[in-house]
Amino acid sequence: MCRELGCGESLEAFGSARFGKGSGSISLDDLACSGSENSLLQCPHSGLGNHDCGHHEDAGVTCAGYASGGF
């Protein structure tokens, strides 16, 4: 996620809505990223819009900071 956003390397990943629950539709579930992907969509997943979870399981990540070319 951090690489995709241009926010440096990922320092830590969290589950259980650590930064608060999201809202709206859930797009991705059962992600199995290796860490080398440039986009979350490159990670194996259960299919866009296919899920068996709720927002109480939302994931979050802490990034090192802005990488060159970030926003």
TrEMBL record:
Alphabetical keyword list: Disulfide bond, Glycoprotein, Receptor, Repeat, Signal
Matching SUPFAM superfamilies: SRCR-like
Matching InterPro entries: SRCR (IPR001190), SRCR-like_dom_sf (IPR036772)
Disulphide connectivity of cysteines: C2-C63, C33-C43
Keyword Disulfide bond in annotation: yes
GO cellular component: membrane
Domain of life from the UniProt record: Eukaryota
Family matches, as Gene3D superfamilies: SRCR-like domain
Xref: SMART domains: SR
Domain SRCR residues, every copy: 1-64
Record Pfam families: SRCR
Family annotation (PANTHER family): DELETED IN MALIGNANT BRAIN TUMORS 1 PROTEIN-RELATED, SRCR DOMAIN-CONTAINING PROTEIN
Functional description taken from the UniProt entry: Binds to extracellular matrix proteins. Binds to pathogen-associated molecular patterns (PAMPs) present on the cell walls of Gram-positive and Gram-negative bacteria and fungi, behaving as a pattern recognition receptor (PRR). Induces bacterial and fungal aggregation and subsequent inhibition of PAMP-induced cytokine release. Does not possess intrinsic bactericidal activity. May play a role in the innate defense and homeostasis of certain epithelial surfaces.
Assembly behavior: Interacts with LGALS1 and laminin.
Name of the protein in question: Soluble scavenger receptor cysteine-rich domain-containing protein SSC5D
